[in-house]
Amino acid sequence: MIDEKFVKKQKSVIEKNIARLEKEIAQNREFVDIGSTNEDNAMEFEELEEKQALIKTAEKDLKEFKAALKRIEEGKYGLCVKCGQPIEIGRLKAYPEAVYCATHAEED
């Protein structure tokens, strides 16, 4: 079983990631008006597409970190959602939002 000290540290890491992602999403949602020429509009559209891709990725990551925080609150953090066995500590350190043990992560 994972010790409480480790879970507390992971919770802090997860909360920092949530704050970082929320800030990143907010910043990428800010609209910058580049100009009024066709070239400026093309650049503006390209920037908008890039921001949308960044937002989509950040929102996915945010959802995973929030789910990890919920698992901590429920006392289920660090357990594989597929087999119920503990997720390897090294894996949780690298991916605090991990939901699968190494065996089942390969299958996903």
Give a quick summary of the entry.
The chain has helices at residues 4-29, 38-74, 89-94, 102-107. With 108 residues, the chain is mostly helical.
General description of the model:
It is a single chain. The chain is mostly helical. It has a single domain (4-107), classed as Four Helix Bundle (Hemerythrin (Met), subunit A), CATH 1.20.120.910. It is built from four helices and no strands. The protein has helices at 4-29, 38-74, 89-94, 102-107. The longest helix has 37 residues, at 38-74. The chain is elongated. The model has no long low-confidence stretch (mean pLDDT 90).
Question: What portion of residues belong to β-strands?
Answer: under 5%
Instruction: Say what oligomer this is.
Output: single chain
Morphology: elongated
Domains, number: 1
CATH domain fold name: Four Helix Bundle (Hemerythrin (Met), subunit A)
Count of separate DSSP helical elements: 4
Helix fraction by DSSP (H/I, runs of at least 4)? 55-70%
CATH architecture level-2 label: Up-down Bundle
CATH homologous superfamily classification: DksA, coiled-coil domain
**Average pLDDT across residues?**
90
Class per helix and strand makeup: mainly alpha
CATH class term? Mainly Alpha
Largest sheet, if any? none
State the total count of DSSP E strands: 0
* Low-pLDDT residue spans: none
* Rg over CA atoms: 19 Å
